[in-house]
Amino acid sequence: MDLLNLFKYKKPVDEQLVTKLTDYLQHYYQYLSKHGHHKIMVRISGDINSIVAGALLRQASKENIVAMIFDFGTDETNSLVELCKYSGLETFILKRGAAYQSEISAYQLHTPASLKRFYQRFINYHSAIQAENMKAVIVDTFDKSDRLLGNRPEGFYGHLMPFYSLYKSELYDLAQFLNIPGQFIPLTNYQGLLYPENIALTWDKIDPILFLLTEKQISPEEISQQFCVDLTWLKKLKTRIDKKSLETTVSQFII
């Protein structure tokens, strides 16, 4: 299954796109700053979204940018700090390891799904509290791929949403265009609905399928026949997308 080279589904990743994204961040922040917000905060988690967001924020503004890192007492904190230093971002480390473990124990959470949902809500809640204390605008780094696939609980995740209409594979292209060193770019697959034989598809394979199902409105049967994609899997994916599309969307920035 190689849909990547069969058609173009991505926007051109060039200086024009970067300018649109940085202008959006600048203008929206200027608007919110009139209402008492003095900084722009982005949570740096090490995923491609937060890394690209940090690089764009650095281009959009040379000051008032805060990179927030959640410290859970692991070695990952040090690598995230190094990433922020390389990017020239002011770093704020929020130690929440003990509180996280305490709440997991109190709620008796054990399954991977329940732990994942709780982790996202925990991060979301403490990010909002810290941003309120710092009078900061939060950048929501959620992208189009995750949005279509419904990969997070409902709730407020930020004021600015620059990646709403960008696929995750486009963010990888942006990382390359922005000259982010390869050692800082994580290679991830889509884990939500494994392909037959428990294959986790890379984003440059899952994103073209999302494009065909949503923007082109091509049926699973047609996609399966034309591109040799497993039909049962496609139907499950389409059901997941349709279910998510019925939920209320947030204010968005469409490129």
Q: How would you sum up this structure, described in words?
A:
- It is a single chain.
- With 255 residues, the chain is α/β, with parallel strands linked by helices.
- The chain folds into 2 domains: 15-188, 3-Layer(aba) Sandwich (Rossmann fold); 196-243.
- The protein has helices spanning 15-33, 48-60, 76-87, 97-107, 112-134, 144-149, 168-177, 203-215, 220-227, 231-245; strands at 39-43, 65-71, 90-95, 136-138.
- Strands 3-2-1-4 form a 4-stranded parallel sheet, sandwiched between helices.
- Strand 2 (65-71), helix 3 (76-87) and strand 3 form a beta-alpha-beta unit.
- The longest helix has 23 residues, at 112-134.
How far is the first residue's CA from the last residue's CA?
Answer: 29 Å
- Can you tell me the CATH class of the largest domain? Alpha Beta
Largest sheet: 4 strands, parallel
Number of domains: 2
**Percent strand:** 5-15%
CATH fold title of the largest domain = Rossmann fold
Helix coverage percent: 40-55%
Which residues sit in consecutive blocks of at least 5 with pLDDT less than 50?
none
- The dominant shape is globular
> Going across the major beta sheet, what is the strand order?
3-2-1-4
Annotation, overall tally of beta strands? 4
Please state the CA-atom Rg, rounded to the nearest Å.
19 Å
Integer average pLDDT: 89
Determine the structural class based on helices, strands and strand pairing.
Answer: alpha/beta
Q: H/E series, N to C?
A: HEHEHEHHEHHHHH
